Amino acid sequence: MANTITADEIREHFSQAMSAMYQQEVPQYGTVLELVADVNLAVLENNPKLHEQM
Length: 54
Known about the structure:
single chain, mainly alpha, about 80% helix, EC 1.13.11.93, iron, dioxygenase activity
């Protein structure tokens, strides 16, 4: 079955589609996503042990 995908892939695609749709409806949602990504990156860069645990 070359055309099968995992449940995780289905969830990922669905989540991405919902996020894109929500960003169109609520433009500041995209800003929040960027802020969260920036904070997460800063925390991981400043905490190598935490980054290793992930």
